[in-house]
Amino acid sequence: MRPLLALAVVAAFALPQAATAQSTAADWKMADEIVAAIQAPRIPARDIRVQGAADGRTDARPAIMAAIDRASRAGGGRVVLGPGVWFSKGPIHLKSRIDLHLEKGATLLFSPEPAHYLPVVKTRWEGTEVMSYSPLLYAAGVEDVAITGEGVIDGNAKSGFHAWHRLAEPDFRRLRKMGFDGVPLRRRVFGPGTHLRPPIIQFMGARRVKLEGYTVRNSPFWVNHLVYVDHAVVRGIRVESMFPNNDGVDVDSSSHVLIETSVFRTGDDSVVVKSGRDLDGRTVGRPSTHVVVRNNDMGGEDGIALGSEMSGGIRHVFFTDNVLRKGLSAIRFKANLDRGGTVEHVRVRNFTVEDFGTLFWFQLDYPSELGGNFPSTYRDIVFEDFKVQNVGVVFDGHAPAAAPLKGVLIKDVAIASAKTNFVLENVQDLRLDNLTIGGQRYDGRLSAVSAPAPATR
Hints:
Mean pLDDT: 93
Distance between the termini: 24 Å
Structural class: mainly beta
Number of strands: 30
Low-confidence stretches: 1-22
């Protein structure tokens, strides 16, 4: 085992306060400009109500798709599901200029049979493009699309997809190897006999998207997945889905995205930003940029996350005024040696954090699964104005020696209680400016190049 580094002494120094304040003001002006620049979908003010039995047993999918087709032929409009349980024996595929609107009291309940989600479609599964089972609500190559209303989208607690969590490893390892080796998409077909769970909602190559007001339950996999999306607003939704890998929102190689005033009770990250895995992600080469996440209530296993699929890069991401309830890690940034990619200019402020195992967790040195040597770079990251009740570890940072974690500032963060303060490995110039832990203030810079020992005061 490598020698352990105990951080018993923190050197004091004078931080450049004026420069930091000026930079922060400019940053948050950029965040406001991002929100102002997001384009809303342009959907005609025309309602087409779905006709049929909303009894939870009769297959309503033909009626829903017929209403979508009718609205599309007319140039677009709002397809309305009234109160009742609309059972869909297969996926709903949206088209351009369509708003699927679930009125209060409406539930869109999906079939539990995986075979109903064939034939395969082009999707992205944990950062690698693949032909696989259709997402339950799917929109590909569209513009001006929305899902709105106070109703419920239910992936079905009895879905056969849920059991695939235990069966998927041979398939996802094979897919990852294909992506790493550059196998053409036409040969990455994962249909019958494979076990890659689809997300409940996925937009794949879309422009001007609005997701607003609805509740989602029982997703087979990721919940709201935005892939190659430009200009999207996620507002006032509620995610109540505790199955494995149930991220609330995945922003994946997308730009100009706002996520606000939503509630997340999820089996994985509440909100996570990604941009593709390994060679496949680097080849696609679409970063996630210009993302703002504000005024949300997050109760996921992890609060917010970046990666680990971030090979296309992530930059200009802003998190502000969010509440994080309870879980394993409040903020988790991830990568491994197969990834490559750069994450930079990330700003996180005005958080209320209740009870987490780790407050700031940078795990950038996950072992390579496929023999790669492409260290990821995380830099220019600021955390400021946090009020924290209780954490196990304040800052747990690990990076490869070839690409140490650099340029992280923790400023004006008050933590009532922590068991361990710092665990550092290949971290350079971690800057502390008015970090208080249990009433004790820390100001200074920390660096570590060897494996760490947990250190309390």
